[in-house]
Amino acid sequence: MEVKSDNVQEQINQINQKLDLLLEYVTEQKLKSETIEDLVSDVSIISKDAFSSVVSELDKQGVELNVDDIKILAYKLIRNVNNFSQVMDMFESITDLLKDVGPMINEVGIDFTHKLHDFEQKGYFEFFKELANIMDNIISSYPPEEVRALADNIVTILDTVRNITQPDMLHAINNAVSIFKNLDTDEIQPYSLWKVFREMNTPEMKRGLGFIMTFLKNLSQEPISK
After folding, report:
1. Is residue 199 a contact partner of residue 191, using CB atoms and an 8 Å limit?
2. What does the alpha-carbon distance between residue 181 and residue 109 come to, in Å, rounded to a whole number?
3. Distance between CA 217 and CA 131 in Å, rounded?
4. Tens digit of each residue's pLDDT (9 = 90 or more) over 19-65
5. Cβ atoms 200, 209 nearer than 8 A
6. Which phi and psi angles does 18 have, rounded to 5°?
7. CA dist 165 → 32, 151, 169 (Å)
8. Are 206 and 200 in contact (CB under 8 A)?
9. Labelling 84: which of 15, 55, 206, 209 has CA 20 to 30 A away?
10. Backbone phi, then psi, for 124, in 5-degree steps?
11. What is the pTM of this model?
């Protein structure tokens, strides 16, 4: 009988231990529940105060708050969560791209700055500045009618410039300029008619007169454009 009494007491002790654990668990859960309730209560109070402040400020600014519009906006936000996620992914991709491309852009900017410095040292900017002054002088010196006439004849002008800039023409013009440059006008002797007649019999003068006559003859044969 004594053995049975010991077993019963041991079972009672085990039951008591389990009850103590159960009571401890219940107490902890109750404390957690109370804490959560207090937190919810505090958050609710804060939310109400914040909402009241927002409503009051909107009322001061003359803004009417429509609850239905807010609901619609909330529904739209919920429906477009995936779109917002895609947009954020796109921004992340752009950010990663900028991180990769940033050094290259920086290098290009440095090279561009150096190139601008080289242009400035070589006088490009001063040249374009003076070119702008030339354009200002041209515009201020010619009335619109003359500029319009220039535009009407630009093809003829370009054809003339093209013909003048041909290698043979440039060579002839250069020779003429060189000869004139080397002439000493102070040492030119006066020519009498008799001396002119004698010079005209020289091969050089005959060739020169032949060139002038041929030029004038061909010029007279060209039609005069109006």
Report:
1. yes
2. 50
3. 42
4. 778 778 778 877 777 777 777 777 777 766 676 776 677 667 766 66
5. yes
6. -65, -40
7. 99, 21, 6
8. yes
9. 55
10. -60, -45
11. 0.33
